[in-house]
Amino acid sequence: MQSNLLLLLISITAIAISSTTSATTIGVTYSNPAPIYGSVPISPEKIAAKVVAMNIQAVRLLDSNPEMIRAFAGTNVAIFLSIPNPMVPLLASNLSFASLWVYHNVFAFYPRTKISVISVGDDVISSYSPDDPPLFLLRAMQNVQKSLENLGIFKISVSTTFSFSSIVPKAFPPSSAQFEQGNGEAIIRPILQFLERTNSSFMIKIDPYQMYRSSSSITIGFAIFETSRFNFREDLATGVRYHNLFDMMVDAVISSMAVMGHENIPVIVAETGWPSSGIDAGEIDATPYYSGQFLRSLIGHLRRGSGTPLRKGGPSEVYIFELVDKYDPEQPVTSRNWGILDHSLTDKYQLLGLKDSETIFAILLTVLEIFFYLALFMIASHRFIGWYIRRNDPPRPIRRHVRRN
Ligand SMILES: *[C@@H]1O[C@H](CO)[C@@H](O)[C@H](O)[C@H]1NC(C)=O
Ligand SMILES: *[C@@H]1O[C@H](CO)[C@@H](O)[C@H](O)[C@H]1NC(C)=O
């Protein structure tokens, strides 16, 4: 009986700990609609207000402009700044240029705007041929880091964003994935050393939709987190079963880092998502239904905090691509839309976990947990008192009842 109680206590504690340490921060990606597409401009203040109203914890700004950074001042939203690719060579060759960028985009707003991380470029590698790798990338990161330190800012980490499809040629089985050879040695290895030294994170864009489309062996259920007995792929080298494509891709990244001896660097998924419409009729899986399923399941999966087979807490941050659909009145109806809001900022899906209701639910759960502990404590102390009394005052032999018929 006592050991049963102990077992119960241990399992309840384990559940409580796992439910209160939801490790992954879930954010969204935002970029100003490019004017060349004829998109309707939305004011930075309107975007910031919407993000706050939706209780979104973090935003990745793809084209960080000062007005947008200012709009998030005084909010509790963590901001991920991305420096546009054309600036990266200049940041590398000219420390004054890097310092000026940091001064105008970070120092002017920090810490009123909660800037948490800076990505120096986004998939810079893919614009260069393997014979001419962008060796300046690390130097640019170092110059941004140095500029922050010179201004007395030590809490913002510096990294760069990679794209899964540009650096991991073979995702399955995840345990034997490796970074693409040329860029892996020339570019990624020294960057991993920099990230390790500065306590920064490895940032990667993961596109399960594209991976699903390009691989006939991946089922739609596996790609959109459908739970079914048959929806798994086994990594034969490790015997680990994968139940969704997202975890498989994250673990392929972790294995690739492990090959270079850096398996403990935190991973940030800089973007992931599923489009609700495609460019042509061939994209039959780009529908609001699949997109909604993918996003709801992804959020639920991350909120449960069960991690991936190779990384206990999973990615430290995940950014959903993207906040707002690109709207183009000039274009035909069919375009690839990834937004969780349409161009008029109306919700396309009911995404729990991003919203207030989920927070209230979490508080309720905590209150219930406290009550449970209290009850458990009372039961345990009651038992102890009973045991103590029996010890000091042994009960008399119980009289036998004799049944009479
Ligand atoms: C370096 O950047 C600063 C600031 O933008 C600029 O004034 C200077 O001319 C640049 N130096 C070179 C060598 O390009
Ligand atoms: C990195 O983190 C470790 C442990 O938290 C700390 O001791 C160290 O000072 C940090 N280094 C930098 C460069 O922030």
Automatic annotation (TrEMBL):
Its EC number is 3.2.1.39. The keyword Chaperone does not apply. The chain crosses the membrane at residues 360-381. The keyword Membrane applies. It catalyses: Hydrolysis of (1->3)-beta-D-glucosidic linkages in (1->3)-beta-D-glucans. InterPro entries: GH, Glyco_hydro_17, Glyco_hydro_17_plant. GO terms for biological process: carbohydrate metabolic process. GO terms for molecular function: glucan endo-1,3-beta-D-glucosidase activity. This is glucan endo-1,3-beta-D-glucosidase. It comes from Eutrema salsugineum (Saltwater cress).
